[in-house]
Amino acid sequence: MTKRKRTVYLTSAQAAEMAGVKERTVQKNCAAGNLHAAGQIGKTLGFLEADVKDWMDWREKNPRYSRAWGWNGSRTPHPRGVPVKGKKS
To answer: What is the pLDDT of residues 52-73, one digit of tens each?
Structure first.
């Protein structure tokens, strides 16, 4: 008899605990496209541990002050000090 490997999903709360952030942060980043849900657990989203670790690495490489969202909803961080389009320095 072969043994099936089960995929284990982390809930938003478990992902937040693992990353050391609030659950709301996980949900906001999921909505922004920074953290991708791997499945659905009832009415909540489920995340793979590897995806959460990649997201944690991304957060570490892009500190909060440099994660301001890009221009026109591009949702990509722009380097600190780069002015937002339409704003004059």
So the answer is: 999 999 888 877 766 655 554 5
Contacts of 68 (CB under 8 A, 6+ apart): 77, 78, 84
What letter does residue 45 receive in the DSSP assignment? Answer: E
Alpha-carbon 40 to chain mean position: 16
| Six token digits for residue 28 | 């906001």
For residue 80, the one-letter residue type is: R
Rounded to the nearest 5°, which phi and psi values hold at 44?
-105, 165
The partner residues of 10 in beta bridges, in order of sequence, read 47
Q: Give the Cα separation of 52 and 8 in Å (integer).
A: 13
Cα(67)–Cα(12) distance, rounded to whole angstroms?
21
Q: Is the pTM of this model over 0.90?
A: no
